[in-house]
Each structure stands twice: as structure tokens, then as C-alpha cells.
């Protein structure tokens, strides 16, 4: 196999970000980034005291050996040439079949099952169209889903790793097996994992929800998940957690569920509006890039009167949107905020009063003087006109 083929087959996570070669002695810095020891030592010896990937200043120059990654690389290398392009395809099928048997067998120890999952994770990272077809033919997605949601007594480490493998398979296989989640017993375990699982498990489940909306084959799964009040309530709780990765995944899951119109009333009843308001009100300190997604989801829900009432009745609802009106660095935020305020201010006098009291008129004037797009400015002018006309009507009535 030539050098070009070798580069293609090295999984991205196994490459040193500096040399782009296979990691031989992976070490992790205080920033959480992993490099090959020799490469990062040369970087620091040259007088660079920042992390090459994040460019953060290194307040601690010590290295921590990444034994987990070293172990995975060692396993990958042990798989040898049997998985390289051009080799006997039957060897690939036989090897994957043996991994499947290991996972299926009730006689297999937890340690051996975890090792099998690690190998599946590594193999699914590499690009090989034949191998991906093998995953499909051997029904790995169905097996892993059954293993995760078929028993409430699974070890959490096993669930985490199995879900990780599932997420790697979802983009390359048929999604029809996701329909097993509709089964009442499977749904109960899904909700139990969401309630009791680790942040990693909750993040994976949110991504799984997101995938359920990407295919017509799984539309019913999306409907079942979106109409589970308990599950949606749990997702809303996760949205409000301080852990960025899991809350980002949760806001994406809410947005995905909202794409199905039949889910929207259920989402509102479960507190989705309040969850989104909390999320966007904290966007100054976290998740700025996903604030527009939260507001876009809210706007979809506002076709329902119950959603409008939930927004207006939330003590931070209108105020948090007013703060998002003038965002120089994020026109999408500004446009969404103006659009949502236009909806509630048209129907609720209390929303108009609160918006004006929170300084929306000043925010809109700043927005109109900025370099924002024509569409945003048009919406801002319409909101200003609405507020002025409603204020005039109410003044005359007094």
C-alpha cells in the first residue's frame, strides 16, 4: 500500500494536529488537546507557549499521557492489513461477524464486549465503502439499538460506548431500525437513560432524536418522542444545564422535534418555551452560535396561542428578546428577535408595555442605523410602526 493510501486510512483522531502523522506517543495538554509528545515538545522548545489548536496560553506546560487513545491506536494497528483496500473482502465480513457474535453472546464478559465496541468504533471511523456496506448487511445498527434499549440493567460505560458507535453508523446505514424505539418497553428505557444517564449519554440520545427527523422512515418515531411529555420535560431540563455540549445537543433536539407539526402542542405543554427563553437569555456567556436556533424553534411554536401566552407570561420572556434585538455580530439573532417580538406585541398589550419598558425602541433605532441586512431593517421598521400605532390607539382610549 502506497503512502497516499496510508494517509487516507488513518482515522482523523489518530493524527497529531502538528505533524499530521499517526500519533506514536499521544499526550494531552491542559487545554484538553492531544498531540504527539515529540511534536509538542519541539513546539514549546521553539518558544511557543500556546496550544497550537486553540491558541490558548498554556498556564501549565506539563503533559498527561493519553493511555486510552494509545490503546485504541494500538488496536487499530493490530487489525493489520486485513482491512486495507484491495484485500480479501471475506476476511472483513468474518471479522465484523465475530465482533457481532461477541456482542450478542450472553457468555461474553463486559470487558470483552467493551473491547468489541472499541474496535467497531475505530473501524466505523475509517472510510471504506465495502466495510460500511458490511455494517449494513450484518444489521449492526439493529443489534446496538437492541443492546442499549433492550435492558435497563446495562452498565453505563457499555451504554456510552454503544451509543457512540450507533451515532457513527447513523450517517452510513438505513435508519429504519430506529423504529424499535416506538416499542413501549424501549421507549421507557430511552426515557430512563435520559433521566439517569451521564451527560455523554444524554448528548448521544439528543443526537439520536435529531436523526429521527431526517428520514420519512422514522417520522413516527419523531412523533412518539415528541409527544412524550416526560421525555420533552427532561430535554428542557437538559437545555438549562451549564454543561455546554449536552445543552447544545438538547436545544438541537428540541428544534428537531419541533419540525414535526404534530409535536408542537406537546412541546409547549412540556415547557419548551420557558426552556428556550432560559437558553437564549444566557447566550451572552454561552452558546452564542445556537441562540438563533433556539429563537427559530420558538418562532415555529408561536403559531400556537398557548406558546404566545407562555412567552408573554414568562418573567424574562420579552426582556430577553429585547436584549437580542441589536446584535452587531449576529444578524440572525436580531432578525429572529424582531420577528418574534412583532408576533407577541401585535396580540398582547402587556408585551408591548414590557418591550418598551425594556428599551426596545432604542434597540430598534440602533439596529436601523447599523449595517444589518435589508430584511432585518424592514422587520425593525414594521415593529416600530406597530408599537407606535398601538401606543397611539391606547393613549386615545385613555
TrEMBL record:
Pathway of action: Protein modification; protein ubiquitination
Single annotated GO MF: ubiquitin protein ligase activity
Database matches in Pfam families: ARM_PUB (PF25598), U-box (PF04564)
Top enzyme class: transferase
InterPro entries named among the record's database cross-references: ARM-like (IPR011989), ARM-type_fold (IPR016024), ARM_PUB (IPR058678), PUB22/23/24-like (IPR045185), RING-Ubox_PUB (IPR045210), Ubox_domain (IPR003613), Znf_RING/FYVE/PHD (IPR013083)
Residue intervals of the U-box domain: 9-83
Domain of life: Eukaryota
Keyword Oxidoreductase among UniProt keywords: no
GO terms under biological process: protein ubiquitination
Keywords for the protein's UniProt record, in alphabetical order: Transferase, Ubl conjugation pathway
Reaction(s) the record says it catalyses: S-ubiquitinyl-[E2 ubiquitin-conjugating enzyme]-L-cysteine + [acceptor protein]-L-lysine = [E2 ubiquitin-conjugating enzyme]-L-cysteine + N(6)-ubiquitinyl-[acceptor protein]-L-lysine
EC identifiers of the protein: 2.3.2.27
CDD domains: RING-Ubox_PUB (cd16664)
Role noted for this protein: Functions as an E3 ubiquitin ligase.
Protein name: U-box domain-containing protein
Species of provenance: Cicer arietinum
Top-level taxonomy: Eukaryota, Viridiplantae, Streptophyta, Embryophyta, Tracheophyta
Amino acid at each position: 500500500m502506497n503512502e497516499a493510501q496510508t494517509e487516507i486510512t488513518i482515522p482523523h483522531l489518530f493524527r497529531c494536529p502538528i505533524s499530521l502523522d499517526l500519533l506514536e506517543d499521544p499526550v494531552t495538554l491542559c487545554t484538553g488537546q492531544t498531540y504527539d509528545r515529540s511534536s509538542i515538545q519541539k513546539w514549546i522548545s521553539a518558544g511557543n507557549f500556546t496550544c497550537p489548536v486553540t491558541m490558548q496560553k498554556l498556564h501549565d506546560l506539563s503533559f498527561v499521557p493519553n493511555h486510552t487513545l494509545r490503546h485504541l491506536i494500538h488496536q487499530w494497528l493490530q487489525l493489520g492489513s486485513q482491512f486495507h483496500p484491495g484485500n480479501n473482502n471475506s476476511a472483513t465480513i468474518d471479522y465484523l461477524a465475530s465482533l457481532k457474535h461477541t456482542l450478542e453472546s450472553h457468555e461474553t464478559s463486559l470487558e470483552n464486549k467493551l473491547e468489541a465496541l472499541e474496535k467497531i468504533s475505530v473501524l466505523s471511523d475509517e472510510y471504506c465503502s465495502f466495510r460500511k456496506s458490511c455494517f449494513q448487511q450484518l444489521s449492526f445498527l439493529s443489534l446496538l439499538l437492541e443492546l442499549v434499549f433492550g435492558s435497563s440493567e446495562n452498565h453505563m460505560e457499555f451504554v456510552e460506548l454503544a451509543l457512540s458507535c450507533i451515532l457513527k453508523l447513523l450517517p452510513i446505514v438505513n435508519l429504519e431500525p430506529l423504529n424499535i424505539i416506538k416499542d413501549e418497553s424501549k421507549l421507557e428505557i430511552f426515557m430512563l437513560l435520559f433521566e439517569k444517564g451521564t451527560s455523554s449519554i444524554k448528548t448521544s440520545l439528543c443526537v439520536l432524536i435529531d436523526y429521527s427527523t431526517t428520514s420519512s422512515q422514522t417520522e413516527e418515531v419523531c412523533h412518539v418522542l415528541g409527544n412524550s411529555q416526560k421525555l420533552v420535560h427532561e430535554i428542557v431540563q437538559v437545555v438549562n444545564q451549564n454543561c455546554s455540549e449536552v445543552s447544545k445537543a438538547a436545544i438541537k433536539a428540541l428544534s428537531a422535534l419541533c419540525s414535526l407539526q404534530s409535536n408542537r402542542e406537546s412541546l409547549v405543554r412540556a415547557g419548551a418555551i420557558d426552556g428556550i427563553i432560559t437558553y437564549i437569555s444566557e447566550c451572552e456567556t454561552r452558546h452564542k452560535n445556537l441562540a438563533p436556533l433556539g429563537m427559530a424553534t420558538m418562532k415555529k411554536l408561536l403559531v400556537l396561542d398557548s406558546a404566545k401566552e407562555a412567552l408573554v407570561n414568562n418573567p424574562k420572556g420579552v426582556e430577553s428578546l429585547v436584549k437580542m434585538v441589536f446584535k452587531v455580530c449576529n444578524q440572525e439573532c436580531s432578525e429572529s428577535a424582531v420577528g418574534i417580538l412583532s408576533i407577541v406585541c401585535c396580540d398582547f398589550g402587556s408585551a408591548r408595555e414590557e418591550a418598551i419598558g425594556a428599551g426596545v425602541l432604542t434597540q430598534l433605532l440602533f439596529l436601523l442605523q447599523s449595517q444589518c441586512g435589508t430584511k432585518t431593517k424592514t422587520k425593525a421598521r414594521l415593529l416600530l410602526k406597530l408599537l407606535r400605532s398601538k401606543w397611539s390607539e391606547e393613549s386615545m382610549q385613555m
